Structure formats: structure tokens, C-alpha cells
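Researcher: Structure for this, please.
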Amino acid sequence: MLLVLALVSMGDRGDPLAARAAVRPSPSASGSAGPEPSPEPSRTPLGPRSVERKPVKVRVTAGVGDTARMAKQLRAATAAYEGRSAAFVLTFGQAPEPGDGQAYAREINKSLRKARPGMFADATTRDFWNGGTSGAADLEIYFYTR
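Model: Predicted structure, C-alpha cell format:
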């Protein structure tokens, strides 16, 4: 839990360089008729990237060992986030026993990299247990800011 709190705390901080760039002095309203300012070119964010505050929540239901179904569901659930990179993923595997739940979560996390290698290549994953019947997992995916 301490790790989760530390990661969420790090993701809670905004990008100070981007905030400074967003605050610009407004043009003065003088009576002089000067040339119109040219529109600014699109800018890429400056400074270190940050982590989104709100996770993308995904639920996967597949039998233990059914990695093809896991990958298929994960591809479908993350299709809207194509081109983004995940910072970290918290996976809560359901099972009556903690060891089984964590093992299921580990399977899901391996399937992430099969489903979307570019999106989850460098993501940190954590396997947790959530009581219940086997064959389901809840994921919280924290993406980097754009």
C-alpha cells in the first residue's frame, strides 16, 4: 500500500514547466494598430512527463491459463488509448486464496505485454489479490500524460 500511495503521490504533481508556458501576459489594449500576431505553432510539452491522476479501469474475465482470451479482452479494452504509454498497472486477481489471486493477476499482466507491447513495454505492474471466485481481474491502468 505504501508503494501505491507513493506512486499516486508522484502522479498527483503537475508539470511545472507546462504550467509556466500556459500563463502568458495578455496583449495590451493600446490604440495602436499594429500587425496581427501570428498564431503560435503547436508546441510539444516541455519538462518531465507526469502520470494521469485518474486510472483507466478494466475488468477481464477469462479462465486460468486462457491467455488468448485475456489478450483479446485487453486489446479491446485499451483500443481507445492507442499510442499512449502506461506508467504502471495495478491488477487485482480474484480467487478464494491470496496466492491464487496473485498468480492470476500475474498472468493478466503478462498478457498486457502480448496484447499491446508498445503500450505496456516499460510499465510497472503489481499483482494483488481480491477475494472472490476465480477467473476475473480488475485492473487500474495509470497512463503517462500526453
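Researcher: Any notable elements?
Model: The helical segments are 2-11, 16-22, 67-77, 98-115, 117-120. The radius of gyration is 21 Å.
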